[in-house]
Amino acid sequence: MSSRHPIQALLAHPGIWQGRRQAAGSRPVLPTGFPELDAALGGGWPLGEVNELLVPEWGLGEFRLLLPALARLSRAPAPAGWLLFADPPYCPYAPGLRGAGLDLSRLLVLRSNGRNALLWSIEQSLESYCFSAILAFCGAADRVALRRLRLAAAASACWLVLLRSERRHRQRSPAGLRLRLATAADGRLQLDILKQRGGRPRRLLLDC
């Protein structure tokens, strides 16, 4: 007679998520371009999920962190989707993006007429299945709106990044991944992983 408890067979089912087990390989990911960050995230940026990036001020290094993955997506062969920057706080610098390897012919920039219009536009863009990445600079967003985005992202397998003020780090969020940026004393980019599915909080210092 086997001594294996029936619960072990249940826990082996791939549909059961366990908080103490890193779910590497069980979900689609996009390599970040930084090996140490890929290792911490179980392979890369989670796709079909809300990735929340909290920044104390714009221009701190958020684009340096995101550009390697954006460039990778922009060079993917057809029928890969568009890249969308939604409500960026400043005009994207085209020569700099091109120099980082971004194919600008795949990039769209959206300007909305306020928070509700922005959130509606993001949700509609996800549901269109036309985008491989959406970077949205959004301020206040209630939990209902964030849950709607989470559901839309899960259905689309899009890389969705919500860039928000660091002041909102205490706000509860349904995002699967929450990161906080800062500048370390030595000038490197300090990245605090506040929340991730199947992983644990930790701090990384990146040269980027």
Q: On the 0-100 scale, what is the average pLDDT? A: 86
Side-by-side strand order of the widest sheet: 5-4-6-7-3-8-9-10
Question: What's the structural domain tally?
Answer: 1
What gap, in angstroms, lies between the N and C termini? Answer: 57 Å
- Rg on CA atoms, Å: 18 Å
The percent range for strand residues is 25-35%
Q: What order do the SSEs take from the amino end to the carboxyl end, as H and E? A: HEHEEHEHEHEHEEEE
Topology-level CATH name: Rossmann fold
What is the fourth-level CATH superfamily? P-loop containing nucleotide triphosphate hydrolases
Shape: globular
Under the CATH scheme, which class? Alpha Beta
By DSSP (H or I, 4+ residues per run), the number of helices equals 6
> Architecture in CATH?
3-Layer(aba) Sandwich
The total count of strands amounts to: 10
Helix residue percentage: 25-40%
State the low-pLDDT regions, or none.
Answer: 1-5, 9-24
Question: What structural category characterises the helix and strand content?
Answer: alpha/beta
Q: How would a textbook summarize the main sheet?
A: 8 strands, mixed
